[in-house]
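Researcher: Here's the sequence for the chain we discussed earlier.
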Amino acid sequence: MTTPLCRFCRTPLKDTFLDLGAQPLANSYLTPEQLAAGTERAYPLHVRVCRKCFLVQADDAVPADHIFDADYAYFSSYSTSWVEHARRYAVAMAERFGLGPDSLVVEVASNDGYLLQHFVAMDVPVLGVEPTANTAQAAIARGVATEVAFFGAETGRSLAARGRADLMAANNVLAHVPDIGDFVAGFRELLADDGVVTFEFPHLLNLIEKVQFDTIYHEHYSYLSLLAVEQVLRANGLRSFDVELISTHGGSLRLFACHVGSGHEETEALKALRAREAAAGLGEIGTYQGFAPRVEAVRASFRAFLDAERGAGRRLAAYGAAAKGNTFLNYCAATSDDIEVVFDASAAKQGRFLPGSHIPILSPAKVADVKPDDLLILPWNLKDEIMGQMAFIKDWGGRFVIASPETKVVG
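Model: Thanks. This is the structure I predict for it:
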């Protein structure tokens, strides 16, 4: 077998971070017809770490256009807390960088317009760039101008002919691109000379410290540290100058970047995070070793919980047909024999089945009809929001369960 090369610096990847075996695509929800056909595919999900640049990355097992197709099922606006996060961002950026009617804000991977709609409401011109046609159409329907395209250097140059951006946003997409260098080069091409780009991405340090292995799936080609991202930026004419630690997705970074020659000054927050990553050993290969046994312990905890549920005659359902939940359930070999149903607010997922585990997906309106004894919250990053919405399960003695980093009843 040929040793894969680092997707950024092309160094041979000889060190495994975590091997999750063969997994179906985490956002490929099955119709009844697809389930009956029995043609679902699984692909290797093997994550390695580069000894030179310390970029943690999954093997290229699936072409991007197989994942982000016209029937992509993730719509950002179904999470009210995420839409509010986007609103606060828009207000803060408009104030900090003086954005107005003469500015241009571009979001890459703009999904259904969940973020740019807030700039539109402030009369700030916007443009979304989104590769999935169905989410792009939803954005256009709410008044958000959107280009249906994969982003990279060529797309950036093409769009720059219409005008360059004062602010660019890229939320939870930097990890999703197979060619991370070309993707970042697109920002260099489209960003105005003194413009700012913000990248939000889950922080690798949290993944390691909190055993957040369920954030690993084929859509996530890379698992990002400040250490690795700063190297990618500088190789493509950009540099970071500020960072914020934010709570989304179990702990993320909002990294502010600009052209290398721009006048934005580095903040103390950025210097402090560099020091924190260095102290945590993210520049040492030994830090990445020993992660797999900790993941195996999480699986053992969940399987023991399932056995206890079955032994006690309790009925288990889940909430949130999230990609992270699919990685978790498939790694733990859970099926509809273990979990009767999963509830999800997305109409695009209802009536379908989870990939791999084949658990049926119903509307949350059906929770009171099913009356599960326990409700497993799969998108643990939205735990508080979901527990608030589903508090009525306590009327029949229902309990909430979280399975990361260990399985426990939380209310």
